[in-house]
Design brief:
The protein has helices at 14-26, 38-45, and strands at residues 6-10, 31-35. By secondary structure, it is α+β, with helices and mostly antiparallel strands. Strands 1-2 form a two-stranded parallel sheet. This is Stage 0 sporulation protein A homolog.
Length: 47
C-alpha cells in the first residue's frame, strides 16, 4: 500500500517555491501545495 506524500510550502519568493517543488517531486511527493501568502493560508486553515 502506497501513501500519498503531501506537503504545504509557503514562501513569498515564487522562484524558491518552484525550486522546492522540483526537489520534492524527485522525492516522490504527490501532492504539493504552494502559496505566496502565509496569512491567507493560515486564515483558510483555521476556518
Amino acid at each position: 500500500m502506497s501513501l500519498d506524500k503531501k506537503i504545504l510550502i509557503i514562501d513569498d519568493e515564487k522562484d524558491i517555491l518552484n525550486l522546492i517543488e522540483t526537489v520534492l517531486q524527485k522525492e516522490r511527493f504527490t501532492k504539493i501545495y504552494k502559496n505566496l501568502n502565509g496569512k491567507r493560508v493560515y486564515t483558510y486553515l483555521i476556518k
